[in-house]
């Protein structure tokens, strides 16, 4: 466990155990298990960016579950998922501001245009640039929609 994010998660598990916060502990242990599974499957030591990708995936799953549970009228289960979501968000970097996202989209489109890329490839190239700049700091699906809107004539 060399990356700082993995250490922070491990410390969170220890703190949750000491404070007897069972719900928080369960969420953090589940996250640790997902990280460990990825390391075992790929036989590598994950760095912070890779751990961040796992956390983002867990956040996305929780958001989808919350929507599904609320639509099914299972508010108690949805509340539990929301609590888990809040625990996971503690390990994500600070959200990018609206202005920062807008500037990043503008810069990415300028760079792609300057590189002479046209047509449908613009979307892919711009998203690659944006993912590097904003990974973990904004919702990528929302960013993709925003970029598509900007590319519409």
Automatic annotation (TrEMBL):
UniProt keyword Magnesium present: no
Keywords in alphabetical order: Transferase
Which positions carry the signal peptide feature in this UniProt record? none
Q: Does the keyword Lipoprotein apply?
A: no
A GO MF annotation of the entry reads: transferase activity
Question: InterPro entries annotated for this entry?
Answer: Asn/Gln_tRNA_amidoTrase-B-like, GatB_Yqey_C_2, YqeY/Aim41, YqeY/Aim41_N
List where the protein spans the membrane: none
The protein here is known as Glutamyl-tRNA amidotransferase
- In its UniProt entry, the species of origin is given as Advenella kashmirensis
């Amino acid at each position: 466990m060399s990356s700082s994010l993995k250490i922070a998660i491990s410390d969170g598990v220890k703190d949750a155990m000491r404070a007897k916060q069972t719900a928080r502990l369960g969420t953090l242990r589940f996250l640790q298990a997902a990280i460990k599974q990825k390391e075992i499957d790929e036989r590598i030591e994950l760095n912070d960016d890779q751990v961040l990708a796992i956390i983002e995936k867990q956040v996305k799953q929780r958001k989808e579950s919350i929507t599904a549970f609320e639509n099914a009228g299972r508010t108690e289960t949805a509340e539990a998922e929301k609590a888990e979501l809040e625990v996971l968000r503690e390990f994500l970097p600070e959200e990018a501001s609206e202005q920062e996202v807008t500037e990043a989209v503008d810069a990415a489109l300028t760079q792609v245009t300057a590189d002479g890329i046209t047509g449908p490839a613009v979307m892919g190239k711009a998203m690659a640039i944006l993912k590097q700049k904003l990974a973990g700091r904004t919702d990528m699906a929302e960013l993709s929609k925003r970029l598509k809107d900007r590319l519409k004539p």
